[in-house]
Fold this sequence. Notes:
Mean pLDDT: 94
Structural class: alpha/beta
Order of helices and strands: HHEEHHEHEHEEHH
CATH class: Alpha Beta
Oligomer: single chain
CATH superfamily: Uracil-DNA glycosylase-like domain
Amino acid sequence: xxxxxxxxxxxxxxxxxxxxxxxxxxxxxxxxxxxxxxxxxxxxxxxxxxxxxxxxxxxxxxxxxxxxxxxxxxxxxxxxxxxxxxxxxxxxxxxxxxxxxxxxxxxxxxxxxxxxxxxxxxxxxxxxxxxxxxxxxxxxxxxxxxxxxxxxxxxxxxxxxxxxxxxxxxxxxxxxxxxxxxxxxxxxxxxxxxxxxxxxxxxxxxxxxxxxxxxxxxxxxxxxxxxxxxxxxxxxxx
Length: 238
């Protein structure tokens, strides 16, 4: 455990559950609220018969996790539809296959929030909890969501490694550690796939986001993603 962590009188699961009950009622960002609700009503043709979640999306996984996986935001027709991070879209397909191969997930696919998928020693979250139009949250929207991430991060007491999926995740992880007075290297390394940053707290491991923009073009391959989680696994060995 490193400084600044603690769950108070509640267990990790109870505290996360209580936080998420508050989170799903958040309406701080008018543009994101309007977009998530519009998408949930209009729906994509392929999912026309489904009821969309259409609310802020909580984190998901093992409350005793030593690995934190941080993305960007829910996909409009992925997590905004299913209500679980990286669930129901192509990015999630890539991520959960990699987590399964690395031994963090009990199966290689995630289809719905009640499909029985279990993560072991891993927890998935995002700096922004509502889908932003064009996947581009504003600076103000990121700031509005930051307290949720900070609270969640504080409840995950034994995180030893953070996999940052994309530059925004890396930036937010650095902000979290700075706010907790964790020592960071200077100058701070620029984001790059495969970058490993040693800190006075959790190690940061960077990866390109498994978005279709990266996976369809070959910028990110499954072997590259596996190498990231292999590095994470090596950092969690007793």
